[in-house]
């Protein structure tokens, strides 16, 4: 007889690890209650988790309500600011013309600074030129003194020759100088100590220098301001300033600003 065949059986489905049935049938929980008693602790835990979920959902709802309130308030504030900007004039706000003026002002300031630097350089070059001219004038004065000394020696030699020959000496009466001649001679003496441009290369400048010297020499006050020496139309402020610079450099005139006002005092040839 053929051996009896084992009938096919459907294998039992594996019990889910988290199923309540496994919890009731598992040997890992020997103290688990029989029947439906195992549902009590599971339902208690479910109740606790449900309460926690409800509490979290309530917190989320409160947060949502707070955000909605803030959004509404913030949106209202933005709307008010927008309406205020549209309905309020701001006269102090900068305009395109303001930026153009600021740019133009910056260019003007730069131009002014450049002109001031140029003026400073010109004044420095003028001072160097005046110093060189004063040095040349000193050399010319020394040469004139040597010539005068040589003339005096020649005259003395002629007088000695007359004495040796026994001829009588003729007395020559000296002509007295008038006040005008003394004045002209004193001014001439001062002008010869100044740079060449004041000694005849420019007749107009020499005449201006003589007018300035006369004003300072015969002044009744101890000091004069620059404006006191201006005599339009010939002697303007620029000419007076140029003449005073030359006289101050030659130390014929003293410049004093101790009182807050620039005064020029006459000293004469040192």
From TrEMBL:
The keyword Acyltransferase belongs to this UniProt entry's keyword annotation: no
Annotated signal sequence range: none
Keyword annotations: Centromere, Chromosome, Chromosome partition, Cytoplasm, Cytoskeleton, Kinetochore, Microtubule, Nucleus
Organism: Cyclocybe aegerita
Cellular localization per UniProt: Chromosome, Centromere, Kinetochore; Cytoplasm, Cytoskeleton, Spindle; Nucleus
Protein name, per record: DASH complex subunit DAM1
Gene Ontology cellular component annotations, sorted alphabetically: DASH complex; mitotic spindle polar microtubule; mitotic spindle pole body
Family of this protein: Belongs to the DASH complex DAM1 family.
Record flagged with keyword Cytoplasm: yes
């Amino acid at each position: 007889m053929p051996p009896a065949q084992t009938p096919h059986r459907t294998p039992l489905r594996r019990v889910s690890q988290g199923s309540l049935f496994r919890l009731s049938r598992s040997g890992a929980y020997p103290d688990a209650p029989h029947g439906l008693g195992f549902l009590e602790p599971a339902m208690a835990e479910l109740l606790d988790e449900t309460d926690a979920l409800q509490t979290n959902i309530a917190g989320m709802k409160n947060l949502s309500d707070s955000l909605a309130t803030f959004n509404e308030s913030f949106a209202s504030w933005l709307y008010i600011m927008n309406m205020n900007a549209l309905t309020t004039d701001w006269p102090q706000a900068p305009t395109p013309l303001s930026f153009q003026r600021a740019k133009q002002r910056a260019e003007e300031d730069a131009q002014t600074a450049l002109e001031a630097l140029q003026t400073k350089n010109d004044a420095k070059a003028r001072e160097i030129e005046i110093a060189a001219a004063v040095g040349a004038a000193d050399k010319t004065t020394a040469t004139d003194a040597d010539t005068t000394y040589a003339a005096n020696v020649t005259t003395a030699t002629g007088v000695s020759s007359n004495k040796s020959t026994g001829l009588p000496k003729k007395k020559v009466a000296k002509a007295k100088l008038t006040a005008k001649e003394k004045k002209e001679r004193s001014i001439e003496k001062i002008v010869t100590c100044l740079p060449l441009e004041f000694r005849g290369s420019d007749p107009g400048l020499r005449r201006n220098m003589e007018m300035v010297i006369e004003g300072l020499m015969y002044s009744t006050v101890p000091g004069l301001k620059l404006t006191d020496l201006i005599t339009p139309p010939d002697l303007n402020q620029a000419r007076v300033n140029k003449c005073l610079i030359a006289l101050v450099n030659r130390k014929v005139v003293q410049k004093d600003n101790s009182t807050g006002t620039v005064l020029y005092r006459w000293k004469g040839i040192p």
